[in-house]
Amino acid sequence: MAAGVLVYTEYADGTFKKSALEAVSEGRRLADSLGTELTAVVFGPGTADEAAQLGTFGADHVLVAEDDALADFTGDVFTDTLFKIVKKHQPQIILAAATVSTKELMARLAARLNTGLAMECSQLHLGDDGLVATRALYGGKVIADVAVRGLPAIAVLRPNVSAIVETPREASLEMVAAADRMRTRVTGKRMEKGDQVELTEADFVCSGGRGMGGDDFSLIEALAATLGGAVGASRNAVDEGWRPVSDQVGQTGKVVAPKIYFACGISGAIQHLAGIRSSDVIVAINKDPDAPIFKVADYGIVGDLFEVVPAITEEIKKS
Amino acid sequence: MDIIVLVKQVPETESLLELDTDRGLVNTDNVKWIVNPYDEYAIEEALQIKENNSDAKVTVLSVGPKRSETALRTALAMGADEALLIDDPAAEGGDALATARLLVAALKEMPYDLIIAGMRAVDNDGYQVPAAVAEYLDIPLITTVTKVTLTEGKIVTEQTVEGGILEITGNLPLIITTQKGINLPRYASLPNIMKAKKKPLVKKTLADLDVNTGQVGNAAAMTVTVSVGYPPEREPGIIIEGESPAEKAAKLVQFLREKAKVR
Fold this sequence. Notes:
Structural class of chain A: alpha/beta
Number of helices of chain B: 6
Number of strands of chain B: 15
Number of helices of chain A: 8
Order of helices and strands of chain B: EEEEEHEHEHEHEEEEHEEEH
Oligomer: heterodimer
CATH superfamily of the largest domain in chain B: HUPs
CATH topology of the largest domain in chain B: Rossmann fold
Number of strands of chain A: 17
Mean pLDDT of chain A: 95
Strand order of the largest sheet of chain B: 11-10-9-12-8-1-6-7-13
Distance between the termini of chain A: 57 Å
Helix content of chain B: 25-40%
Structural class of chain B: alpha/beta
Radius of gyration of chain A: 21 Å
Strand order of the largest sheet of chain A: 9-8-7-10-6-1-4-5-11
Number of domains of chain A: 2
């Protein structure tokens, strides 16, 4: 009989991502509603000590696989190991926070289990027939509630939509053996951003658009650095080659949900708005008073971003 | 070398979408249909590989109703060699797993060395079909690929992940999914559009494939849309006035600290 909530808690670059802890907290909330237990699953060499701390965020049990084969994500060994765990523990619900790796992992797992999967959800609740997930369709133009069938029902959560809540308890720790099939291998790595905040997890995002006029985003970077936030870009800026694709915010880029989103020199095309809709506060700075962005911004400044943005940075530094 | 590209026809992102809130459905009667933008990267990548491999053949494969033929003709016009459409009313309302089953039923009947799919379909954004195809065919999967290098049965890819790029290597046969930035899809020239009309576009139904109706369509779906709605509109806020950028900036930061309760 399937019971319990299982959270795949991604460990990468020496830490748990903020979104992974959000997923654990959300798992705790669902487990409480179901009157059942929460198990966190962690993969990676040397992760056992930190994994044990997940009791802070509500995990009753933690399962850890520490094999070197799990140092970097490859589909086979991660899917095979998680599949073994799921077959043994028979959870009712599986959660994970959305990243490139977890989306691949959960999609393969759902197919192997022939079960329902709701990808990039903004909300979860328990209906009469089980898990119901809220997610966006058609690039954010439609919001749908989706009943997730099958056992386990799987949901992958957007970053920044659940709160990290501490509900501390002593979590039991069990070591699990990893599977060993690896048909693909990581043969190289170029990690570029260092300790910069990931766009989709950032509390503050400062984005530049066509109004930047070129690839010098130093003003935007300075504002982001002052806030401890991330730098984003509109599709125009990316298509011009000024910023990498990974910085693109919008319908065909990343969906962000920061406390404050600064749109600098961004006109506010519908496909961009789709990516920033979940921001708490939108600030727009644009020379053009008729730019559509002003219709959705909470605060707008009509002016030259090359003067306004540094002025904002200075003002924030003052406190 | 046989390259298969999985293609989906989707509504153009600027299309007006009407909602049938009673039935929890999106009305797509009046939309403009296009090739899923991420599948255009997949088609282009296949064509670039073909240009470097004289014996390579590119087949495009889709599950969808008759209108999907247009998407396949576009792929043929770009330079694909053959197209196959799986079209059966029994498949309507099927979920990602059902779509994958249909694709796999067709794939099992053709030679393939490399299968290329778009990373995501911009209508449903499920990211599930390529992964399910990998599972059902029991071949490896590499997602979110921004660069491909092929050497003697081996594929070396660059995968864009949070914070950087991973180089992932595997052996064919294998399925990859394409991310924006991998290439710039070509436009089909008018002569190529004319040539495409003569290229083979085969249509198959469930009866032609080793799939039973119990595995596809609405009844088998593991995710079911319960309700649909539009996202809440954001109300316009205020334009901050001031004599100078510094003054406006000061007012903004004051608002952010007081009203928005942020730093």
